[in-house]
Design a protein that fits this description.
Elements lengths: L1 H4 L2 H9 L4 E4 L2 E3 L1 H13 L2 E2 L1 H7 L12 E4 L7 H4 L3 E4 L7 E2 L2 E2 L1 H11 L2 H13 L4 H10 L5 H10 L7 H10 L13 E3 L3 E3 L4 E2 L4 E6 L7 H16 L3 E6 H6 L1 H19 L7
Parallel strand pairs: 4-5, 11-12
Antiparallel strand pairs: 1-2, 3-4, 6-7, 8-9, 10-11
Length: 278
């Protein structure tokens, strides 16, 4: 898959540069995953959270700067070693572990409990795209008790395999914080002038579309023209189209939220019938 998406030369160069680590025949990992495995062995712990999500091949919002490792609550670790990782002190049972990492269900549970909502949602969306069943995720969330269980249930309730990537997942997470807005990903919209589109998160009632606009996606004029036409057709059919850059979604969520809220307020006011005259 890597060769198909890039080239054999590009893969070899990435390995030589240390950007990718060859683990076994046909298996590669980013250095963070490889480093996490080595550190887990050193402290007799297990790779967890985002580090394990990466190992599962799931897409994430942010790659951690240090490997995330779970160790038993009574484990003592020297300060030098501790500084090389982010530790979670938790007692894991054998059925929560696969090799040197937490299994898929435990990884999703820990992420849902311990991570910010947008990061956990991006990982959950990716896991569902990868084949993890939404019914199982929700069962894990319903059975959860203690700290973070309510946060986990919220992630499970909103996780959706239709989100194409973490960019869309994080944008949807921001939108879910906006009162009065109800979005779902990749909604198929049809209308006048041959409109037939599947935009990013959209609210059918308020007719608002949120677009995660990637510079890479507009790599040629044909792609730019295709998207420009889609935006124009949506507007011609009465949809408000908000286009957000990766930088704003990932680093300026409050600004993105304020813009969405302003449009929601305007659309809600338009839909509210005038008060009866006395």
């Amino acid at each position: 898959m890597l060769v198909r998406l890039t080239s054999r030369r590009a893969l070899d160069d990435a390995i030589d540069a240390g950007q990718v680590v060859r683990i076994a025949r046909g298996r590669y990992a980013v250095p963070e995953v490889h480093a996490g495995t080595e550190l887990a062995l050193k402290v007799a712990g297990h790779v967890c959270l985002v580090s394990t999500a990466l190992a599962h091949g799931w897409k994430v919002k942010l790659t951690p700067g240090r490997p995330q490792i779970a160790v038993p609550k009574d484990r003592r670790i020297d300060g030098t070693t501790k500084a090389r990782m982010v530790l979670s002190w938790i007692d894991l049972s054998d059925d929560q572990i696969e090799g040197l990492a937490t299994d898929a269900a435990t990884t999703l549970e820990m992420c849902g409990r311990r991570m910010p909502f947008d990061e956990a949602l991006a990982i959950a969306d990716s896991a569902l795209r990868d084949g993890f069943r939404v019914e199982r995720l929700r069962a894990v969330a319903e059975a959860a008790k203690g700290p973070g269980s309510a946060r986990l249930r919220r992630v499970a309730a909103h996780a959706d395999r239709r989100a194409a990537n973490p960019f869309e997942s994080v944008l949807r997470a921001i939108a879910l914080e906006v009162p009065g807005l109800q979005v779902e990903p990749q909604v198929r919209l049809r209308g006048r002038l041959a409109l037939d589109a599947r935009p990013d998160p959209a609210d059918r009632r308020l007719r608002i579309v949120l677009e995660a606009d990637s510079f890479e996606w507009h790599g040629d004029r044909a792609a730019l023209r295709r998207d420009a036409r889609r935006y124009d057709l949506l507007v011609a059919n009465g949809w408000a189209v908000l286009r957000f850059s990766w930088e704003d979604v990932m680093h300026q969520p409050e600004w993105v939220r304020s813009v969405i809220q302003a449009v929601v307020d305007e659309r809600t006011e338009q839909l509210t019938p005038p008060a009866a005259l006395v």
